[in-house]
TrEMBL record:
<dbReference type="InterPro" id="IPR037683">
    <property type="entry name" value="Rmd5_dRing"/>
</dbReference>
<dbReference type="InterPro" id="IPR006594">
    <property type="entry name" value="LisH"/>
</dbReference>
<keyword id="KW-0479">Metal-binding</keyword>
<dbReference type="GO" id="GO:0061630">
    <property type="term" value="F:ubiquitin protein ligase activity"/>
</dbReference>
<dbReference type="GO" id="GO:0034657">
    <property type="term" value="C:GID complex"/>
</dbReference>
<dbReference type="InterPro" id="IPR013083">
    <property type="entry name" value="Znf_RING/FYVE/PHD"/>
</dbReference>
<dbReference type="GO" id="GO:0008270">
    <property type="term" value="F:zinc ion binding"/>
</dbReference>
<dbReference type="InterPro" id="IPR001841">
    <property type="entry name" value="Znf_RING"/>
</dbReference>
<dbReference type="GO" id="GO:0005737">
    <property type="term" value="C:cytoplasm"/>
</dbReference>
<dbReference type="Pfam" id="PF13445">
    <property type="entry name" value="zf-RING_UBOX"/>
</dbReference>
<dbReference type="InterPro" id="IPR013144">
    <property type="entry name" value="CRA_dom"/>
</dbReference>
<dbReference type="InterPro" id="IPR024964">
    <property type="entry name" value="CTLH/CRA"/>
</dbReference>
<feature type="domain" description="CTLH">
    <location>
        <begin position="149"/>
        <end position="206"/>
    </location>
</feature>
<dbReference type="InterPro" id="IPR027370">
    <property type="entry name" value="Znf-RING_euk"/>
</dbReference>
<dbReference type="Pfam" id="PF10607">
    <property type="entry name" value="CTLH"/>
</dbReference>
<feature type="domain" description="RING-type">
    <location>
        <begin position="328"/>
        <end position="371"/>
    </location>
</feature>
<feature type="domain" description="RING-Gid-type">
    <location>
        <begin position="328"/>
        <end position="371"/>
    </location>
</feature>
Length: 385
């Protein structure tokens, strides 16, 4: 990817800069050392006015400095550094098109849907004033429905910042059944955090009482976790020596916060990543391919705006794949219930319409576009998403 290439080039520039700086400092130190030695010799002369002694010391200093060649060395280091620095801007300009609008296509947007997506993003980020302003100016009152859910979530998150688990416990208790159906361990994690805080600041009696009341109900299903926590009681006052010191790590609060956000979003039918952030991430990943395609089509005098579908796939990575999509390698049509993917005997897959065209509506066999195998439409079986 272009960004990886840029990063490698930048790392080389930084490495060369550090090496150049180190070598330059070495040269300066060496020159300084020679001068200091010469000064020390001058001060040690019994007759400081003797021109013979002074001349021999200065001649020796000049010879040593000529041997070191500080100017040549510094100029060489500067030249190497400038070469690397001059390459980086060129690579940067090559990797980033100054006019990304070339990849723009005039498509019809559902502005109602766009407004909902942007408002949803603001609410999910806790920017409630911006979300309210948008739906008020855009006239999208139905978007306010999701606001209350995220407002409740941020009330819980604000409490967690000061290690107040009360609001989180209330929400978990209210939604315990749904959380259990999702296989969530939020309640256990919450009590673990509270128990650890008691172990850190309280007494053995307080920790034992909390464990009996709040941790014991989880012992049958999470015995290993329960045992580790109970053992910590023995080490109250000397937690540095506790064999399960990892339970005291502050990162558990961050992990719990992220888990709360994920479960909140899941229960209200929202993605952990807002649709707007996913769309932007996909656009950033696909932009280099689209720019290259737009430039190629412009060179061939083909109209980018009139293109109905992309002639090449745009790879977005597994992190941006949320459901199975099949695109026929022959027709470039996306698979659907009306045009399902069909598995050929050679294990290659084409869409049904392509199979029909190649077999002339099932009347004869045809050759697979990817291997020498011949098959008929009757030999192909439908695949399900």
């Amino acid at each position: 990817m272009e960004l990886d290439t840029l990063k490698d080039a930048f790392d080389r520039v930084v490495k060369r800069q550090k090496l150049s700086s180190f070598r330059s400092q070495e040269i300066v130190d060496q020159v300084g050392h020679e001068i200091e030695q010469a000064l020390a010799k001058i001060k040690a002369i019994n007759d400081p006015l003797s021109p013979v002694h002074l001349k021999s010391i200065l001649s020796e200093l000049k010879l040593k400095l000529n041997t070191v060649g500080p100017l040549n060395l510094l100029e060489g280091l500067q030249k190497e550094r400038n070469i690397n620095l001059s390459k980086y801007p060129k690579l940067f300009e090559k990797s980033f098109s100054p006019d990304i609008s070339k990849a723009y296509r005039d498509v019809d947007f559902d502005f109602h849907l766009v407004n909902l997506i942007v408002a949803n993003h603001f609410y999910q980020q806790g920017l409630f004033d911006l979300g309210d302003c948008l739906i008020d100016e855009a006239g999208e009152p139905e978007a306010i429905a999701i606001r209350s859910h995220f407002l409740e979530m941020y009330q819980v998150l604000e409490a967690l910042k000061v290690k107040n688990l009360g609001p989180a416990l209330n929400w978990i208790t209210l939604n315990r059944e749904k959380l259990n159906q999702n296989g969530s361990m939020l309640e256990l994690k919450l009590h673990r955090l509270q128990f650890v805080e008691i172990v850190k600041k309280g007494t053995k009696a307080d920790a034992l009482s909390y464990a009996r009341t709040h941790l014991a109900p989880f012992a049958s299903l999470h015995m290993n976790e329960f045992q580790k926590l109970v053992v910590c009681i023995i080490w109250v006052g000397k937690l540095d020596s506790c064999p399960h010191a990892e339970l005291m790590a502050p990162t558990h609060w961050d992990e719990f916060t992220q888990e709360i956000i994920k479960q909140f979003c899941s229960l209200v039918g929202q993605s952990y990543w807002s649709p707007l952030s996913v769309a932007i991430a996909a656009g950033i990943k696909g932009l280099p391919t689209l720019l290259k395609l737009a430039n190629v089509m412009a060179a061939k005098r083909q109209e980018w705006q009139e293109m109905k579908q992309l002639p090449v796939p745009v790879e977005l990575g597994k992190e941006l794949q949320f459901h199975s999509i099949f695109v026929c390698p022959v027709s470039r049509d996306q698979g659907s219930e009306e045009n399902p993917p069909m598995l050929m005997p050679c294990q290659h897959v084409l869409c049904n319409q392509s199979i029909m065209k190649l077999s002339k509506n099932t009347s004869r066999t045809f050759k697979c576009p990817y291997c020498p195998t011949e098959a008929s439409a009757a030999q192909c079986r439908q695949l399900h998403f």
